User: Fold these one by one.
Assistant:
Number 1:
Amino acid sequence: MPRTAAWLALLAAAAMVPLVIRSEYVIGTLTLMYFFAFVGQGWNILGGYAGQFSFGHALFFGIGAYTSSLCFLKLGLTPWVGMWLGAAVAVGVGLVTGHLSFRYGLRGAYFALVMLAFAEIFRVAATNWDFVGGSFGILVPLQGHAPRLFQFGDKRYFYYVILAMLLALTWAVARLERSRLGYQMIAIRENEAAADALGINPYRVKLAAMALSAAVTALGGAFYAQYFSYIDPAIGFGPANSIEILLRPIIGGAGTLWGPLLGALLLGLLGEGTRGLVKSYAGLHLMLYGVILMGAVVFLPRGVMGALRSLGVGAAERA
Amino acid sequence: MTAEVVLSSLANGIMLGGLYALVALGLTLIFGVMKVINFAHGSLMMLAMYATFWLATTAGLDPYLSLLLTLPAAFAFGYAIQRAVIAPVLRAPEHNQLLMTLGLALFLDNLALVVFTADPRTLLVAYSQTTVPLGPVRLNLPRLLAFGGALLISGLLWLFLKTTDLGRALRASSEERDGAALCGIPVGRVHAMAFGIGTACVAAAGGMAVPFFYVSPEVGNTFVITAFVVVVLGGLGSFPGALVGGLLVGVVESLGGLIFHGSLAQIGIFALFVAVLLVRPAGLLGARHA
Amino acid sequence: MTLIEVRSLSKRFGGLQALSEVSLSLAQGEILGLIGPNGAGKTTLFAAVTGFVRPDGGSVRLDGQEITGLPPHAICRRGLARTFQLVQPFPELSVVENVMVGAFNRTRSAAVARRRALEVLALTRLAPLAGRPAHALSIGLRKRLELARALATEPRVLLLDEVMSGLTPTEVDETVEVIRGIREAGVSIIVIEHVMAAVMGLSDRIAVLHHGELIAAATPAEIVQDRRVIDAYLGEPLAGKRE
């Protein structure tokens, strides 16, 4: 199949990049692009497929980042294990917040606000809790090149780690999209009453989406903390992070498999295009994001993927 | 902990709560009329605070006097924003409306960051530290003025909504958007007016906070996240709900500050929020749309 | 054998008594027509039976089991499915995917669900449209899709809320055939319908609601002679009346 061949070629190219290009800058930019696609896909499971817009996904991101770093700092546990513990904690917190929100059918703006509030609770708590580093946050102690501890002497290893994570996730979400749970999530997004009439328990399906979404976002947060060897309450739990997480899937197309990746690519390219300007003025890139977001809402209300679809590209895709 | 400490904290909470109520009133008015949650509300507040700050430092204008300039300007700005940015998405899915105001907030906050830098600024006026005795406690004068101003503005807004034609039109379109259109109310203009008034409310709150608070590009978010909690507690779109919710949250935050130190007091607010979610979700969904 | 047993079901909305002590039963393999003027409580009855509205009093039994007060999805899982008067397809999904969502009621496997969905599409004569996005269908076909989706949940009882109004005469005839086919497959059916000729021809029995009360339940031949029904609803010459 030419389609499969094209994807394999793209994948091979992605795998080759660090071998061909030596520039740490390019590798770093791509690493972050993959990373944003990864957490964006995490948000997409709940916000896109299941249609439950969360404005507080930094909650799960921060939990992943903090849990993996704390386990290493306090217990000497490798972040390779800690990241899964973080995902487990995020699932637990996600189930609690989800239960509170979905039990009474909280949706739309109410749900978005409640998630924001939960993330804020964690941010304020982390800021005031000295055990987790307070407002300063956590510096992950560096051990040189220690692959077993999620630390690498060469940033290119991180590139491969996040590439592998993104690949696995894309594969898993592609499977999810074609599964019972995936269809039930979409059905609830499209029409909750109709889904309910067809034997779908909206509460349980939303909780499942929340759990998956929380776990993925937490894994992304754990990667971030190990990549930068640092996490603090604002980076981890702050509203700005929640916005960063949802921006790319929205721009690319929420509820589509490729939306988060496309969004990450586009915003990545945009960031590069305006790098000179952005360097001289702090905040300029977020200002641009604001303009893009407003423009996207008006001109691409279903993201780039939605626009492509209505142009007929991939129209037969969902047949 | 003496009774005086508790009382003065209570008084502080009530005064702060008045300000929260005013911020929340603007938010709830906008929501009531056009069913849009304005994530840029805090950014509008921040702009008004900078305007007040600069009028004071460059023209020597007293922050309370400058309300005469900033309020009409805020109204006009809100009106224009509604026309340019909100009106095009009024019939779009709810999440796209949220994203629109979120984009606007990102833009305005970071515009301020580029123009004013992240440095917090503080305006000192002659009466910044003046206190007024009330029984056993001493009230900070700027806070008291802000509280009085917030009550005054809320009262005027209430009268305006109850007694004027435009006020009635606002309430009519908050009850039934399409019905109002059928009754010949120019819904587009009414929406823009509502956004203008909502902006003026939050601008007033911002301006009156300047003498006792700092100004920075993200200062509005501190207030507005609290205001979200207030309106959800009081019922989105409810005028009395915003007032009562504002005072309640102000008191909870202030008393929470006695028990927890620093910003941990904010947790009290969010705990309140979650508690309402748990035990009285009907109140939370007060203005649930059918 | 009685499959559905509705006992003195009541529901009040504010000052309006939408349902007042309605009792009704549906036998295995039966098609029951539910008619009455607009606002008579037909759709409320469906909503109360399928869990979308909590009745103020009375009970609903499905095959002897109490289902009153259960949420809609639990009722669907027990084998009672419904369609909506205002069709509610999942617009972003294709026709076959819409039906698969129903089929997932009985299977975890996407392959099985797809196979089952294609069978249902064949039965409801929608097979040629399987790959179309649901939002691209005409209103008549959307009503058919609504029916197909409910059928895919493999119900024992199907409640159809005006699946024929608004259709062309040819589409009505087709739908009547489809409903007969569904009954042949062993599903018992209650239809709310305004298209009189169709509902009279299709139903074994007719129940008439008026102001939330059941005023008659009998064979079509008896119903058209019933004085109360004629006064309340049908009007004088009734053969082939259509709204």
Number 2:
Amino acid sequence: MMAMSRGEKILQVIIVTTLCLLSIIAIIPVVSVLATSFSSRLPVDMNQVTLWPIGFTFDSWKYMIFRPDLWKSFGITLFTTIIGTILSLLITALMAYPLAKKEFMLGKFLIIAAVITLVLKPPLVPYFLTLREYGLYNNILVLIFPHVLTAFNLIIMRTFFKDFPQELEEAAKVEGCGYFRVFFQLVLPLSKPVLATLGLFYAVVIWNQFQHPVMFIQDPDLFPLQLKIRQFITSESVMPALMAEERPNYNEYTLRATAIIFAITPIIMVYPFIQKYFVKGAMLGAVKD
Amino acid sequence: MGKLTYNMRKYWPLYVMALPGTLYFILFKYIPLGGSVIAFQDYSVFKGINGSPWVGFKHFTSLFEYPDFYRVLRNTLVMGFLRVTFMFAVPLILALMINEIRHSLMKKGVQTALYIPHFLSWVIIAGIAFEMTSLSGLVNTVRGWFGLESMLYMQMESYFRPIFVLTGLWKDAGWGTIIYLAALSGINPQLYEAAVVDGASRLKQILYITFPMILPTAAILFLLDIGNFMELGFEQVYNLLTPMTYSVGDIFDTYVFRTGIQQAQYSFATAVGLFQAVVGMVLVIVFNKLSKKYSNGGLW
């Protein structure tokens, strides 16, 4: 690398400083909420808390961690995310495979039928009424089934299968393997990278989903995590009913902050390990068929 | 037809494999789409689609006479415009800047910090926004340092759209750089070497090499984004909205949700939704055509 001129050095400094500032700004809201969740009630009420806890206490966390409804919602979200992701990958891969085969006569027709759904989406109300007819109202399956396939992911997967070395499949077929064995024992095991990437996308959609729960889940016992957090944010229900003489070391702000941090911790924890898959996935999306 | 039966018999496993996915599209996309006919009925849940009376375009005419409709249309257009503009410009500028960082560890750090918000749900993003601007939140604390009175920004009409833009950028601007960074890494380094030999400064290189080289990518993304003009995102707006800010923040998605699902005006809300879906479809098709024409790229 050649030595930088003075002008270039200044440019470099300006860019690096701006980006570092922006990164800090992107993180500050989370840090501030984190600080609030570990602060005492009074400093929060008196606006003394900024980016570090004041009157450090675990009281908000102790109270939230022992709320059974929060853990129940967490469990529902975790369960639907795991089952939903597996089911999504299976259904997507199963459909993408024949679509990548020339001998499959309905291929073109089905691709067009799938792409149409990207362009013309069913209006909300008939969608709601239809799914209610299916019995998905107040049913946690509504957190899974509507997300098991998207035309977009289908096309990505199909592109991947199209590039799959045909010789390998042909060789397996000569050995007497049918389509199912080729698919499950040869193609799927060799598709791990694309499965990982799409799986993460499905998982994030199901974990973070809000629209389906808010439309279909009215029963608080079936609330997934996002609805639970939303309930805490919009209502006073986050605070327990207190006896007159009780003065706990938390208030609604510290409890809400705790709930928010509780909900994002799993994502922050797994994020460093899967960042590369996400980036790969974002790029896959750019590859047009 | 005979050919298809023969094909099905010979390659039946392929048809079995495609079955669950096909069922999904029928059950969750096409049947609900067909259900849109209730926009032309006075639909009642008890009578069903078969028993409800047909009323032609009644709901569409009443739609255009409704002052609420124009408010919602205006909000959707204004916010769509804001979103397309900012979500196009900011990631592009960010990517150009990130591309200039020489220090690879710092580059990684910046990218990680800017990508993470993409994985937080809108409930969380809005929740953080409400916490930050609450009476005890960081924003009002800082205002207090300057002797300013506390303000509840989330309840104020004039701040709704800026907050809409800011939260959108916070969540997705960093993520939007990925595609540009990929395009940037594909630029032939010899171009830069030649420019250096000719005495071009770094800034000149950005202006005359980097920028023109990613313009095609940017153009495709921009056109496709305009095509999605009507897709503002129910989750973001619904979570940021309070009754105080309906006048400036209520969009088609939230309006249909309130009238159709919460107030059960099924036929009317379906008419609104159908209007939105058709306008959205026309936009997507037109802008996809344009992006194909100008840059050989498109959704299909």
Number 3:
Amino acid sequence: MKRNIVHVNTDDFYASVLRMRDPALSGRPIVVAGPSHRSTVQSASYEARAEGVTRGMIASRARRLCPGGEFIVPDWRLFRRVSREIFSMLSAYTPLLEPVSLDECFIDYTGCGRVFGNVLDVASEIRSSVREQTGLNVSLGIASNKLVSHVASRKAKRSNLVDVSSGCERDFVAPVPISRFPLVQGSSVHLLNDLGISRVGDILAFPEQVFLYCFGRWGKRIYRGAMGEDPSPVRSAGPEREVLAAERELSPDSVDLSYLEAVLYSLSEKLAEKLRERCEAAGEVMLEIGYTDGKRAAGRSATEPVSDEGAIFSKAEKLLGRLFTRRVRVRCLRLQVGKLSPEPRQLSLIIDSGLADKRRKRRLYRSLAGLRSRFPPGVAPAFGRALPAVRGGR
Amino acid sequence: MSFKYVKINGSIADEAGCGAREGDRLFVDTDRRPGAGDLVLVAAGGVKKLRRWSPEPGQQLVGTVIALKRKL
């Protein structure tokens, strides 16, 4: 059976949600960014984008480009709530819904036509119900696979629908600029431009084996994507996966590795404290580095469930070593822990010779956390590792 | 490959049952040779039709329909 995959994209999601909350913002350029002039732009409305503001830009630069814009601190709780409402509406049509971000998702409509009708008619219904219940507009891309439906929804924009005929996926993606192709991001665009590839169709001028040899698995995916092929299924999301995050904006920006490690340690302490309060342990550590030039690098590492700062920092430090490879100053560090589970209370069946040491460390971390809660930073005892971060940057 | 947009107005008949309606725009490849069963736009006797391709006398192929765009 031919697949019917729909990519749903909420138009100007963050700005639209903020306008719903405050109708006085209608028609005005909106920039969603943190309060500091050194924070990065999370999202910009169409009006702000027209003035040159882009996601990832430093807020101070965005203010120079868009002096009349409304700069608003993100309200992630509100954004997540509205996003859940929209996804809940869409899941009425199919159980196979895969969120991509707060404002985008894939739904697999294959076989659902027999129950709900032609997908083109249902698209109008989806648009109306989302608009009625949330006040937001959606654009839809429909195709036989996820990649082409994603490209189609980008072409749709602003309350449109684009339905790609079956068998025409390759011709549809061929004229798309390579910088707008979902599989190609960041520096890969320049890499492909250097090869003379400016549009997706240019990729097919190379033999597939050459692409595979030069770029490995990614090259094979790009090549198949250029042929309009993408066998990946729509994976329905399980229960929302919570993460705990701690972030620090450095002042001034720094390339001093020991200082970055100290900041990372203090972030690990914060996360460990949150985990202890919740009696939970984390099975994954994620680190994101934001550089002065706006570029970001991110990575993650799985771990056995951990809840103390030493273990979290150990993983974070290795991630830092792997990700911090550029000679550019770091502006912010964001540390997250995920795959949360209740802290194990039952003893392991495996005899752990380091168990006594782990218990001693745990008692030490808990004592230190207790002292930190009673005294201000710089006065409470801290591990030497974290002191440069407590005292301030360099 | 050569593409163009064709807007559906009252004079285009949807014989393919693809759900197209007035106001939709078709993204048509005028260079592509259609295979059997491909969705195509043909002109016959001054009337444009959307149908599944099979060679027939008296019809002029405008192009293969790559995609349909609709304002929601």
Number 4:
Amino acid sequence: MTTPLLRVEDLVVEFGPKSAPIRVLEKVNFEMMSGSSIGIVGESGSGKSMTSLAIMRLIPEPAGRVSGRIEFDGRNLLDLPKKEMPRIRGRDIAMIFQEPMSSLNPVMSIGDQIAEGIMLHESMPREKRREKAAELLRLVGMPDPMGRLDSFPHQFSGGMRQRVMIAMAIACNPRLLIADEPTTALDVTIQAQVLQLMKQVRKRLNSSILIISHDLGVIADIAEHVIVMYAGRVIETGDSRSIFRNPTHPYTRGLLDSVPRLKDDRKRLHQIPGSVPLAGMIRQGCPFYARCGLRMDKCQQQMPPMQSVNSTHNAACWVTAPPLDTPRLVVAGEMR
Amino acid sequence: MNDVLISARNLGKTFSSASGLLGRKGRDVRAVDGVSFDVHRRETVALVGESGCGKSTLGRLLLRLIEASEGEVHYMGKDLLKLSREQMRAMRKDLQFVFQDPYGSLSPRRTIFEIISEPLEVFSVGKTRSQRRERVAQLLDQVGLSPSFMDRQPRQFSGGQRQRIGIARAIALDPTFIVADEPVSSLDVSVQAQIVNLMQDLQEDKGFSFLFIAHDLSVVRHIADRVAVMYLGRIVEIGPKAMVYDTPHHPYTQALLSAVPEPDPDAKKTQIILEGDVPSPANVPPGCSFHTRCPIVQAVCRRDRPPLLDTGKGQMVACHFAEAHPLTKGEHADLAKTRLQAVGSTGAL
């Protein structure tokens, strides 16, 4: 068994006063092998973006307090001195953000912006950097890459800006690429282009991708493993096929059922009652308790532990994935 | 279905950009270009297209929230665009709008009662305050909110609840026609379904007609009777839901359908990935405006603009190709695929 590229262990993020902390991440655990693609799916406030920011150590301190372990290639990033992080960001771990317009510098040409990233991590002459920047733009499917080096972000469309972001992110061949809602601001036909590009990039550079999205379709398209988050907690993880074929947590089931699909003739969409709780609002028990159709008393008191559904698939639910030493309940009125 | 409620004829809107800082004349933006279509009584028409296609502008033109550059909107035997301000104001009782952003469209300083009762006051529905409170309570109940929320302010509500408030306001005067501009786009997935179901129920119950604007085809699958697809200011395909989804004729409709990522890792589909970006509406390509991205483009497409023609079954398509060869979905996808292979795969990788 090789060591995982990334291992997140009991990751907790708290904000607010120490006496009454608001926990936005509650003991997040997962592992990522080199070359794999993992998708984190969740709705607003689920903690999915917070997880990626914590991995990059981009949570502002001391307002936010991070504890647990984030092992990248065997080293705990949380133990590193702060000034070490910039050397890791961009070179080992790169990030693609949701809004390409606000993540790019509006008064710097895109050629310079791509070259800046290269300059920080590799020494090469200016001309070479420009060539490399053009090469990266060609790689992400930018027409006339040499000619566009001196263009500014506002001269590009949303899809093209996201390509520039991807070019910047892969400039130093990072081993881990974190993409936080990379296609959410894009039109569907452009989203299809960008997803295809990300799959091609991954294949070509053999890098690992951690993709974060609220869109189950995007996750199904690109991720081999899926982590489902709800209110700051991981509630289900597993092989993508197993999660989509055999969703086990009532939230995952409800979410999959409430997605409108092109090919189905249901008269009505399945709906989950209530609204998404804010991370930190749940202090006890299962975070999905208030909206769950299968809840029992125990769920309100105790957060269920992760239980294995099959060799690659785990879920945290007292009802649908009870611990092995308790008798399985026969669930009347299954949701699916 | 001859029971037409509202119909647009050659409706168009040009936003002329005022001269810029240096006195340069800006380009005119042709947001909506000669659109004609009908909405029948009790019918839901979905208007689908990507950003910049003019779908929101079209929705606003129909209700005269912005003034059209040309064309007509017929409603109850009158051309709405010819009415005076006073006459139009009287019509507003029947014609309502639900906005996309539930955070930006409710006044933050007013209570829910004030927000929902405003249209009641304007049209003198309910003589006394207590009668109006009763009506607002009833409306809140209809949209699935507790009447006890009446004296709270919008900030105390989640996105989904705010959208319910927006809907309560829109149905307050029992309108005959509601335009909803991407009403669920900014909501969480699990809440989207609640709002879509609510609007479906309200429509069945109250019988208004509905124009539901959306940016992709998956959301409207459950709610639409007919679907209209827009591209750069024009309707390129319109027809009964089943036909548009099962036998889409326009290559753009096919690409839109194929671009929606399905929540199923095994969904093997012939994906048509369009190249390039949507051209700017300030610079619409000549001929068929889709020709710059079309996988099955021919010489004629660059020259002549295809008219929106009926395929014979109530499905109308604006494509030289689709009209001459009404292909099934599979055939069209295969054709698109072979053309794509012929020009080389997309991207440089």
